[in-house]
Amino acid sequence: MKKKLLAAVALAATSLSAPAAHAQQFINILTGGTSGVYYPLGVAIGKIYGDKISGVKTQVQATKASVENLNLIEQGRGELAFTLGDSLKAAVDGDEEAGFKKPLTKLRTLGAIYPNYIQIVATADSGIKTLADLKGKTLSVGAPKSGTELNARAILKAAGLEYKDLGKIEYLPFAESVDLMKNRQLNATLQSAGLGVASLKDLSSSSEINVVSVPKAVVDKIGPPFVSVVIPANTYTGQKEDVPTAAVVNYLVTSSAVSDDLAYQMTKLIFESLPELANSHVAGKDIKLETAATGSPAPLHPGAIRYYKEKGLIK
Question: Nearest-CA neighbor of 56 among 80, 83, 33?
Answer without folding.
Answer: 80
